[in-house]
Amino acid sequence: MNRTSPARAATAAAVVLATTGGLLGAAATASSAAVTCASPVFKRQFFANTSFSGTPKKTDCDSKIDQNWGTGAPASGLPSNNFGVRWSVTRDFGSGGPFTFTASSRDGIRVYLDGVRKVDLWKNVSTTVSKTVNLTVPSGKHSLRIDFVNWTGSANVKFAYTPRTTASVDKVKPLTPGGAALTYSTATHQAKLSWTKSPEMDLAGYQVFRRLQGGSYPAKPLATTTSTSYTDTPPKDGRLYYYEVRAYDKAGNVSSGTADKGITTVDLTGPAAPSGLTGGTDFDGAHLIWKPVADATRYELVRKDPQSGSQSVVGSTTQTSFLDREHMAGVYQVRGYDAAGNAGALSAAITLDGTDTTPPATPHGMEAVVTADVIFLRARMPYGAPLSEELGNGARLHFYRTEGTGADTRTVDVVCEGETRPGLDSSHLRTGNDAVFQCTDDTVADAVTYTYTSRMVDGEGNASAPSESVTVVSADRVPPGHVRNLTATPRADGVLVGWDPPADEDIAVYSARVGTRNADGTVTWRMGNCLTVTGDKRSLLCVDVPNGENKLYSVIAKDRYGNWSKVTDPAFPSVAVTELDIVPGEPADDTGQPLWGAGGWTMSEDLRAVAWMCSTAADLCDDIVEYQVSRWNPETQSYDLLGTTQPLPAGEYVYFTDESQPLGSVSYYRVVGVLADGTVTEAAHPWLIRPDLD
Description:
Elements: H1 6-19, E1 29-30, E2 42-47, E3 58-62, E4 65-70, E5 83-92, E6 97-106, E7 108-113, E8 116-121, E9 129-137, E10 141-150, E11 155-163, E12 181-185, E13 190-194, E14 203-212, E15 223-225, E16 229-232, E17 240-249, E18 261-264, E19 278-282, E20 285-289, E21 298-304, E22 311-317, E23 321-324, E24 329-337, E25 350-353, E26 364-370, E27 375-382, H2 385-392, E28 396-403, E29 412-413, E30 428-431, E31 434-441, E32 449-457, E33 470-473, E34 484-491, E35 494-500, E36 507-517, E37 523-527, E38 530-532, E39 539-542, E40 550-559, E41 575-578, E42 595-597, E43 599-601, E44 610-614, E45 624-633, E46 638-645, E47 654-656, E48 665-675, E49 687-690
Parallel strand pairs: 43-49
Antiparallel strand pairs: 1-3, 2-3, 2-5, 4-11, 5-10, 6-9, 6-11, 7-8, 7-10, 12-13, 13-16, 14-15, 14-17, 17-18, 19-20, 20-23, 21-22, 21-24, 24-25, 26-27, 27-31, 28-29, 28-32, 30-31, 32-33, 34-35, 35-39, 36-37, 36-40, 38-39, 40-41, 42-44, 44-47, 45-46, 45-48, 48-49
């Protein structure tokens, strides 16, 4: 069995260290000198015993544990048997993960991770023994210690630790790269992203990503590199770009990205070429329109003359439309300019031959109002010079009618009553910012569904798009049927009339009628003083003074087209009622001398003041010092004094508000004037009805 001499072993160690980047200045140092080995190089200590006790005979640095000393001593001053060698290192394992520890020796070897034994081949052997251990190393810094002893005979030792990089085993993402920094040169227009080296032992490289502000990073990286920097030339468009870097390992695991680093590039790029350029010609000139471009702040219109072929700029605008009033024909293109003044590419060209193909603006606000005889139509157009010019050049607003609910072959151009072409006259009115065109359609049939729309047609026959449509049903001429189940109930404040509606579904309003039977049996009907009862659309309170008269009551219905049910119809319903008789015992037939009282009722439940006056023909009006007001009490059959009020000159009404006037009855009052000597005048008898509408 061959042994390597100590001198040869030292030389071998020096060769190994030199090939690893010159981490050590010499293969070994004196054991008495302080030795510092840069991680991940091992610090190696030689002991003249197998218990690693006492001061090491020699300490040096070893980048690789792979020695074969044969039967000789491993270093000067050490025996060839019963010696020990210890390697130790603390290193950063990055994100950690699965590793393989491989050890072989003759004689004993022990491997420790953070002081915990992972390999134990501690036996005097005559042949080399080996062991492989798979384990998971946590992230961060950890210590390794390898102890080797040779008891007798030949000595050799080998140890290695390597990450397991198969994708099925390694599921641990690398740590995010640190120290990310970004710079941008306005001279070279380049962005340089740099970061610190990753401590991962299974690192494969780095991925660089770039995104535009407001966007997301793409799935595919901008670049991959094994360096710790990357130089990019982003678009020179004046926008904000963000960068991040991610580490990836040999198993394909990718770290999270570094924090965004952003730069705003120099803007040397014009907007994209506008798309959708279209145009048309009318008497105003060439109308052009196109789609907006995201970063364009203005647009420039370029025209090539069809005769000379010369090209010129005809205008600039911040809008997406332009009217070239100087020309009606030509080859047109448009390009955008951004805020930095960069010009974009020209759009695709369009050719206008000067023929008026531009339709007028579209009418809006279509209305159709149905009356008993005709349908009134209205449509609106924006008021201003364009409309005036269109009308001055023969434009006309057309109304179209379709029977049913949609346009079909039965669509007709309505001949408007009394007009041939809407112009700047009474055929259209101005409302706000709109001109309102009107039309009367008097050719409709009864009770037919019609759909109306409108278009503006210019003098060249170019028609606008149709306005919105409106669907209506024309009026009928048939009176509605009679109300059903008519009732009339006498009350102290009048007669309450109730009914059920007729079968018609288009009833708009009801009106009560009060009838008096004539000597010949006919009935004279008049409109009653009737009020709507709160919350009830099919009852009316017909207010009147209840004096025991016999009367007839009925209700007529009107549909939404103005047709009333006929009182002359033999089937016209009515109900006879005898009013209540609640006139006070003291007659209310005033002579008007000297006092005269008024009567009436409110159209609601609100209080109304009692009113009377002293006649101008009476000599004693000036002698009245106050008035006494009393109200008839039906229970006691007498007048109860309510209060007094001051007089006014003859001929002027005096008012008194009865705050306690009851609802739902006639209140009869007695008013007398009190003279200076204490006597009173003849009484006036005003009255008020306060209806109960609940």
